[in-house]
Amino acid sequence: MLDILSWIASHGPETARKRVKKLHEMVNKDKNKLFRKFLKFEIKNYHIPIQKSVEAEFPNSASVQYLQSEGYDTTKHIDSSTVQAVLVGILKKFDQDLVFDAQMSSHLKLESLVLAAATLRDSMFLTKWMEHSQGIQASTETLLVEKASQFCRNVNKVYQYVCIIDLIRYVQRKEPIKIEWVYARDMNLGNLNTLCYQFEHLELESALTIALRIVRQFNLTELTSARLVECFQRMKPFRSAGNPSRNRYVNTYVHAELKLIVFLLQRTPQRSQDQEIEHRPIGCSKRSCLYCTFWIEELQEIFKPTVHRFMYYTAGSHGSPYATCARVGPFKEDPNGLCSNKVEERLKGLGDQQVRALLNYEKGHTKKKSEDHASASDGESSEASKRFLQS
């Protein structure tokens, strides 16, 4: 059984800390604090014509919780000065150094910051400002717009990580999770759930329909089903009330492991605790995705004491044609060799000259280990790369 909570306790805060650090740098450490001053200037000049309800100005459900925690009365309408005070208060939160206490859960450590990030992310201020800024041509302001776009992406990441942590903790409390082989056809999703090798770009409503179908076909308890649906909705928010005509898209590949968790949640109770389980592959890729990081590192740790030590090789990112898969448990095939073969198959579509150039580049170049693309195990990935290059 995977002890998800222990993994979250040791890895979750550090992973989220990196995202928080990026936010901190974006807001507080840019040259001459130009971006910070500019954003504050935009906030102070943001006016709403009449008083609005909290939901109209801050559509995210987390906003109510955040505003209440900051002492605001969410039952009353708000005016421009109140909105400005809320937004400036959020920026101050990103400006603080965060101290993580090992005795606290990772979710509680980041809860206040994440609620603030969610409130800012879906605020009418940020939505309107980003739409307006798209027409800016001046070089200085263009640079600020780029910084604002990066800032928005980092806010989304912080919010995403803690939502995922919350979901995993909930699932683990409900049922013990064991590892099984999951095929797309087993989930009756066809090409919409390819897990390892393909990428789908679907409208948001299509993704939610898939989530609802998964929940219903598994005959989960009503409470569990409702909670899972809620988690899907939180992670992939609907169109904002302020701009209902705007299309929202979701990358189904990024959170394929969420479908695995739901599937395993349904399958596990059918097995005895002592019954032997056949270990089969699980798709893994981008290191910045908490799910992928979770599966790779947790499974690696589980199989460390055994003669069938879990080995893996990761490459590429979620939209990349070179994304690979990982395999778990006792089996005859070499997992690193298997993944290398899959990468080689992807390369066959390229011209021979391009392939040779790529392989020569790999032989003579040491890639920078970034958070997004670093392999979970340098030693094993290195061996896998050698086998691939020698084949």
Question: Which descriptors would you attach to this protein?
Answer:
391 residues, two-stranded antiparallel sheet, 15 helices, 4 strands, disordered N terminus, disordered C terminus
Question: How would you characterize this protein structure?
Answer:
With 391 residues, the chain is mainly alpha-helical. It folds into 3 domains: 4-170, no CATH class; 175-278, no CATH class; 283-391, no CATH class. Helices cover 56% and strands 3% of the residues. It has 15 helices and 4 strands. The strands form 2 sheets. A two-stranded antiparallel ribbon has the order 1-2. A two-stranded antiparallel sheet has the order 3-4. α1 (4-28) crosses α6 (106-121), α1 (4-28) runs antiparallel to α8 and α5 packs across α6 (106-121). The radius of gyration is 23 Å and the shape is globular. 31% of the residues are buried. Mean pLDDT is 51; it is low at 1-13, 100-104, 167-172, 174-208, 234-241, 246-340 and 342-391.
Strand and helix order: HHHHHHHHEHHEHEHEHHH
For the secondary structure, the number of strands is: 4
Report the principal-axis shape.
Answer: globular
Q: Mean of the pLDDT scores?
A: 51
Radius of gyration: 23 Å
Number of helices: 15
Write out the strand line-up for the largest beta sheet, numbering strands in chain order.
Answer: 1-2
Structural class: mainly alpha
The share of residues in extended strands comes to under 5%
Count structural domains. 3
What is the makeup of the main sheet?
Answer: 2 strands, antiparallel
Helix content: 55-70%
End-to-end span in angstroms? 36 Å
Unreliable stretches covering 5 or more consecutive residues = 1-13, 100-104, 167-172, 174-208, 234-241, 246-340, 342-391
